[in-house]
Queue: 4 jobs
Job 1
Amino acid sequence: MVVGAVVHFMREKILVIDDDEKITSMLRRSLAFEGYTVFTANHGMDGLKQILENEPDAVILDVMMPQLDGWEVVRRIREGGSDVPVLMLTAKDEISDRVKGLDMGADDYLVKPFALEEPLARVRVLLRRKSSEKQERPANKLQYQDVFMDLDTREVFRGGQLIELTTKEFDLLHLFLQNPKRVLSRDVIMEKIWGYDYSGESNVLEVYIAPLRQKTEEHGHKRIIQTVRGAGYVLRGES
């Protein structure tokens, strides 16, 4: 073990999105030394893809990037329903730019140039805040990516838009949200939703899966209920 390194048993994942290779290289080495698992992206579109694939615990995001700037990236992150903490980096020191980043959904703002210890300290603060909020979050709320379920009101949202579900569709989605990325066999789903003694139509599960998919994929959303051929179904975003 490297002397002086901070050991994180859960190895929180940090995504650095910046088109400046010197910045990404410096932050990658420093964060890794602190014990984090680090991913990097050099433009906004790749960063958004990695957020879906790697589900980071925090994002360090540069503002000034080609094609897709940091403001648009953080806007899309929040529009997609993710609450991942975002620390924005920028060479701009205008108050209006800081306000714009925070209004878009950033959690903190750091102006370049900066001492290396400062982004590391701010990441620690963001992670502690997220951990505290997670502990306080009621167990009657479930979320996966941009799908949010409130068990008290029996409401489901995707990307902030309400989805109207029947009782069985709600129960099915509830089961998937309780087991994200876990392949559920047809028998397990039938047992959990319809019970041991179900003796109705053999294709009843498929009859309910189809409209549930249609409703969760409205407004251009990608499929999240995937078919695993010969095994069952899984709640997993498309890669």
Job 2
Amino acid sequence: MTHPIKRVINTVFLPVSDLKSSIEWYAELFEQPIRPDKTGGGIYWGVSFDGTGIILDNNMWGFPPMIMFESVRDIDASYAFCTDMGYSPIGELYRFDEVAHFAVGGNMVCWAASHERPQSTPGDAHPLLTRISRVLAHGPLEADTERWYAGFLQRDVRPDPLVQGLNGIAMDRGADLLIDDNRLSQSDKVYFEKLRLELRVAPALVIDSPDVEAARSHVIAKGASEVSAVQERMGAACFTFHDPYGNGMMVRQTR
């Protein structure tokens, strides 16, 4: 039988306190037009990448970024699978006309009618920030995190072909999942008052660039904060930065 959870990271939700200003900031960062038809319900489908994108969500403010995996049309099968596996915490299954979703283990599983429609061709990639190539799953015990996602996606964990020394799970399209025990991120934990938990969440994703030095100058000019120096980490030059709302990202040199 087809596994009910697709091996596709459709989106990374980034929590923002001010939706309007965050839309403007990200549109300026990636030099993309603001799309009024993509706004609704406190969220904005923010960045058009090939396969994996960003959603800005002010309903999540105070919570960590969240990975959204796609579900098959029968989302009840996805929910039953997670329940049978004993995953915790698992949230309520919410149903609407063209979308249904639930949260599990800090992730979201979502079916949307739009996922099954022909996707519009993405616009021209930014010359310095070309695509999201990896979405990070942070875990203090790398093996435990690997086992969880291997069971969740029913796919083997393998050495990442680009990030030396780390393992991940290849997705069917879009960004791959990269499991990081902080050797790549080298970031501190953040305390989330609403969860009463201290978690490591930054960077949330890795963006490819053909020229990281120029990309670093670009994000500084666009008002990014906590921009690190360019360093060699696990096989490639990279740097990290934060948006004005505390969401961290990494930019990594492509070969």
Job 3
Amino acid sequence: MPRTVNVEVHRVRRDAFLDVAQRLITTRGYEAMSIQDVLDELETSRGALYHYFDSKQSLLDGVVDRFADAAMAQIAPVLADPNLPAIRKLEQVLGGIARFKAEQKPLVLALMEVWNSDGNALVREKLRRLTASRLGPILTLVIRQGIQEGSVRISAPEETARLILYLIQSYQELAGEQFQARQAGTISFEGVRRSYAAFTEAFERILGLPDGSTRLMEESTLHFWFGD
């Protein structure tokens, strides 16, 4: 008789491994964390872990996937609002993701350390693909809404969504570099603000929006990450 799997029990046990891994990644760093550390925290066996995750890398992937799922859940009500114009949706989607990252700052900083490690090119590529798979369809959907409303003046929504996605990913990488530069005191807050303004301007130009018509991040969020 085939063995049945209790889905809820499976989820709870899997989340227990992810909870510990996330805490260790945040407090010790991914490089310093070991599989044995996770097993010791849970007082369980390697075989039990391998039922859910086959490596330290897959644990990291699980932590990142869960983080992305939580971010998408945060913006789901915005996307579902039938009365919200497309441009305001774009603002609230990107702003909501930025606020969510701020709320999860210790984890974001730990993941940024992994991202910046010379030996983690594969991790960087996986994160890029994860961003594309989650955010790309959302951008396409909202851009199509904007075209129907007449607020977005472009003719190729999917291709434009891809361009916007590349722009967002590039700005995220630049913002990570500037965060480190701010910590080192090698860039001013005004320099960071100019980069954000250039990103916003490029965003508006690609979509054919009036200059200064969108705010993709609250000023308070910019101050939170980069200081004054």
Job 4
Amino acid sequence: MSIGLGLDVGGTKILTCAVSDDGELVAETRVDSPKSPGLLLEALVEAVESVTDALGARAGDVVGAGVGVPSLVAADGALFSTPNLPALEGLPLQAAFAERLRATSGRGSWHLALDNDATCAAAGELAFGAARETGDALIITLGTGIGGGIVSRGRVFRGASGFAGEFGHMVIDPTGPACHCGRHGCFEQFASGNALARLARRAAVEGQADRVVELAGGQPGEVRGEHVLEAAREGDPGAEALFAELGRYLAVGIDNLVEVLDPALVILAGGLAAAGEVLLRPARAAFESSSRRGQGEHAVGIVLAGLGERAGAFGAAALGLGVVG
């Protein structure tokens, strides 16, 4: 049985999953993300060594590896639009990673793949998760920002330059908050983890989020999305109201995407999706009540990722295995 390695590069860690070609999680490791973007190659090699050590005797079954990065990835493997990794702008990372692996471990025969992290999540859900049965789905990754992936007719759709799925930078209100991309009112300014924190800080100033502020040490300016999530899990009404507002904005973006791309299913992934039903319920309710595709014969379902936080790593492994294209 063949094994693929999937490396999901995040802001604080690189999650690496060793996945068999039938979707079994064989091993999993986490290493710290590099503090300097220039050390990314070394961190990727460290992640590979860590998981191959964990595989032990099965390390010989590895035939490929994939890497998911928070960046636009061109068809030739070069990185573009890397606000969190500025030193890597234009770097041909795929070729550089292959060369570094050959130099350090002699693993020159592996198939290597590189893609955007949200596109990897789409590949994971297609190969092993919630999109397996449909072949036509949108994956929306909800974290600090918003990413996305498109599954069309059983394949991952990348577009002309490999950049398809940047849902977070779809403008839904040109008079809205400034975005780091240089525009105003992008989707991720209304429905991401950062957006949730902004909503919560506003509510805190208005005296409407007491438990959330308590979890932030009594400092309204220190409120973050994880404080809202923790309070919501406790059943705090103020936190649930914040998720309801976020869910309404999320439904607006989903509705726009559905009108353009006509999926059978919308899959929510990423750290914020860990909120589960507290996010899913209001998003579904808003979508069902406002969208032409919310109900009826051609209704589009909204579900959580079947692979949870591992969707990106599983998808990178699937790309390394070549089980999705």
